[in-house]
Write a sequence for this structure.
């Protein structure tokens, strides 16, 4: 069976009319005469089909990594702060001793927020995050009390220039952690 006869049969089986087959056969015959550089080899077509999703995945991963890196400098209330909290939580699950770093970061953030006259709601939310992390850290084995001293220093500094409401919340947080 010749190539034209085989192609004729396949086109008819695919639902092409006699007229469509008659129009398509000359086009198919000319395809083999294309210069080699204009033809896409099947292996090259397959490679292109795989390379594009891999490239998009790599780009997405790179974007995610940069987003996480830049979020580490974010302050509470910024649009990157939830990314920072999520990445901190993920690292704490993998390395529980990182909780001390997160606790110290939150204490510094409370101090920065008070110094920059942020809203008391933002300060209180960050202080609540600090208290949650600090409580979990204190309950963990091998607690480093130098980390608590660092936090206490930051919180007392924040309290010195905070509103009465925030001062009271800081004092409550420090007393709770000292008592437990």
């Amino acid at each position: 069976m010749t190539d034209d006869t085989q192609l004729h049969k396949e086109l008819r089986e695919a639902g092409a009319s006699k007229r469509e087959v008659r129009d398509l056969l000359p086009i198919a015959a000319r395809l083999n005469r294309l210069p080699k550089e204009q033809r896409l080899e099947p292996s090259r077509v397959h490679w292109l089909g795989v390379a594009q999703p891999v490239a998009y995945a790599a780009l997405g991963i790179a974007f995610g990594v940069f987003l996480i890196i830049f979020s580490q400098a974010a302050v509470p209330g910024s649009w990157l702060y939830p990314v920072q909290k999520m990445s901190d939580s993920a690292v704490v699950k993998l390395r529980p001793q990182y909780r001390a770093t997160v606790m110290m970061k939150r204490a510094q953030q409370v101090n920065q927020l008070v110094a920059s006259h942020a809203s008391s709601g933002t300060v209180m939310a960050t202080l609540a995050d600090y208290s949650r992390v600090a409580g979990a850290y204190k309950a963990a084995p091998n607690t480093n009390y130098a980390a608590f001293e660092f936090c206490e220093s930051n919180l007392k500094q924040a309290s010195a220039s905070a509103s009465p409401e925030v001062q009271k919340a800081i004092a409550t947080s420090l007393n709770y952690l000292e008592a437990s």
